[in-house]
Amino acid sequence: MYGVKMKGIGKAIPEFKLSNHDLAEFIDTSDEWIQTRTGISSRHISTGETTTDLAVLAGQSALIDGDIEPEEIDLVIVATVTPDSTMPSTACAAAKRMGIKKATCFDLSAACSGFIFASEIAVSFIRQGNYKKALVIGAEVFSKVLNWEDRSTCVLFADGAGAAVYTRSEQDQILNIVTASDGEGSDLITLPVLTKSNRFNPNEVSEAYMYMDGREVYKFATTEVPKNILDVLEGTNYAANDIDWFILHQANARIMDSIAKKLQVDKEKFFKNMDSHGNTSAASIPMALADVKEQFKPGDKIILSGFGAGLTWGSIFMIW
Ligand code: UT7
User: Would the CATH topology of 3-172 be identical to that of 175-319?
Assistant: First the structure.
């Protein structure tokens, strides 16, 4: 078994910034409602940038940050629920543009837990010796699946990509990973796939917008995530209060404050960037890592935690 560490982090966002005030010009909402309920004040929205474009830019900046050549990467996983195509995978299309050749490339669908699930696979494969350097990317263009007349979702979700490289390491810095799913909650956040009728099947899905039962998902997140964080710490000789940084999926500032309270941890240890980025689903954790990494000190204890559609959730406990 090999040790593993995270080495190299990057992010990419579309240029266009959409504020709460801009939204209030075309739907029945307000800056005050969005800020107080979610902690979001603006987000970046694609005006043409594709999921692959953002994945490539985030991946390249992670490689530069980690001082890693594209040819060294032997595994690429892109976590996304908003790919440009289901064939080829975003990972294959992005790898080509990054100059990554002969790596094993595939996409993974676990919504807002996607980066954690993809990281678990990458870390496990490196541990076993199958691969040496894995590029894990979370990339979403959520704006293309939002109903821009549905104020319960379109003020929340946004576009972006984040990436991290995992490599073999003499010292093991990934101390534990715990993930889980519960299909009983599969109708709480949904996004159908467009399908055309054909000669044999008259059924057609002509609208494919995302839907979310926000209140139920809020209850799920504030119940399961604190338990999952305690699970990932179990058997490691560390308690929640020993952790220096909590980098959670950036869905809602109130969710983070509630989790901090349940864990009896100072809420300032929970890094937040949803204020300027909104909820970017699978991209939000690596994007947050990219924004906070300069503040990490060697030896810092970090929890990454994602939760979302499926229902899915999971946490990683790592040392910087
Ligand atoms: O990323 C995947 C995981 N997702 C999450 O973790 C999201 C979890 N859920 C949440 O973060 C919160 O439930 C929301 C931010 C989505 C909603 O906040 P809430 O405090 O749960 O609001 P609510 O859905 O209970 O709605 C309260 C009121 C409703 O009006 P009434 O029925 O009380 O008259 C809504 O119609 O707020 C209304 N409302 C809005 N008002 C202004 C809903 N959306 C808006 C809006 N602007 N954009």
Answer: yes
- The pLDDT tens digits for 157-209 are 999 999 999 999 999 999 999 999 999 999 999 999 999 999 999 999 888 89
Nearest ligand 1 atom to the CA of 215 is 13
Does the active-site annotation cover 249?
Answer: yes
Q: How far is the CA of 305 from the centre of ligand 1 (A)?
A: 22
CATH of 175-319 among 3.40.50.2300, 3.40.47.10, 3.40.50.720, 3.40.50.620: 3.40.47.10
pLDDT in tens, 38-74: 999 999 999 999 999 999 999 999 999 999 999 999 9
Per-position DSSP letters for 115-157, written without gaps between them: HHHHHHHHHHHHHHTS-SEEEEEEEEEGGGGS-TT-HHHHTTB
**CB-count burial class (<10 Å; 0-12, 13-18, 19+) for 26:** exposed
Name the residue at shortest CA distance from atom 47 of ligand 1: 29
